[in-house]
Design brief:
five-stranded mixed sheet; Alpha-Beta Plaits; alpha+beta; two-stranded antiparallel ribbon
Amino acid sequence: MTSEIKAFLKRYRIEFIIASIVTIAVFHIVYHRAGYERLKDFFGDNALTYKIILAVFMAVIFLVAWISYPKIYKFKILLSSAALVSFLFALIIIYINMPKFSVFGLKFNFYDKTWIRSGKFILFFIITLLNINLLMIMLVKASITYSDGQKLALISLGVNLIIIFIAIYAISGNYLGSDGTRFSTKFIKSFNKQFVPFNFLIFIITVLFSFFSIEEEHNYGSIVVAISIICFYCVITAEKVYPVRMITPAMAIILIVGMFVHWVNCLHHKAHYDPLLKIYNRQYMQGIIDGIVDVKLGPRFSVLMCDIDHFKKINDNYGHATGDIVLYKIAQIIRETSLPEGIVCRYGGEEIIVFLRDKTGDEAKLKAERIRKAVKKSGIKAKSRSIKVTVSIGVASTTKGIDAVKRVIKRADESVYKAKKRGRDKVVLET
């Protein structure tokens, strides 16, 4: 496996995908070996414990999402909690033995199994609704204002619950599915027939979009996809009903664990990332030097010291706001070009340092040249202006591991000054 693929899988958080697949495999084996007869007492229509467990999961998901939101401002966590809470609520409602009643002349005869007689439409419907929600989570913007995030998440929860109530009670009161000549009945039959291919299409689109929504190294899309994989398992086993009931708590567990992991990663991100440049800050760099962060540079590595040329003139000519834009865009170019081997940190001012794993000497210089050319080619656009920017880069290498890192940084710093003296927009490798 190449280093590029390993870096991608790390950023994608492939462990959640693996966990969901393993969960399905283990569940499938246990279910088919144990059989429904051994499990029906716990998962059957009259199993109160199962409904209580679903209710507990609903409460935990809701609380974790809403407590974490003020700390990390992640809108997608709120949306995913709203989607799964509404799904769990729908399952509880479906399997509660409710008495007959009427409201404003509308008759509700819920537990007469009309939802089963209509081809399990309600179960298919709420699974599809969850699947659509997961796709929408992948499509929405990751960042949104704090108050708007709260409002939209509550609206999403409310809309989901309203749709579920309308569908459930329309079926339970015999308002749908009771007459084969009705459009609604034809729609139900058509929906049931297209249920699997339609959900498969949604699932594939969700997975594809997750590849393009990786945010730094604390990607949330993989958690959504992990839930989506289990949701699709529910799709292909929904005819039997009971596999859906039994594996649903696994979705809740993955979401809860995923929210906690994402929460911790985001707090780590806040503590160790520069808020302006969106790269690691000097504190994280110091952690690398002191060996207290989980970064394995190995015995062979290089340090690239990158300094933006004439940055003071950019601030003087265009203003500090434009200078900040230039700093951010240059930092992102350096970060993207240095991947997968590079760890990029803000050194101070307009200086950016790159720890380059497994590359020394001419290999490191070649990577530095790629960075220099990428910056020079970019042409930073700020306030309808195109600003030409260049960088000077000093390169120093070692084969003695982390113990030599301070000396390597010093030599790289000396090399960058040599690059500036030689006319700037140059890469100088220590000799």
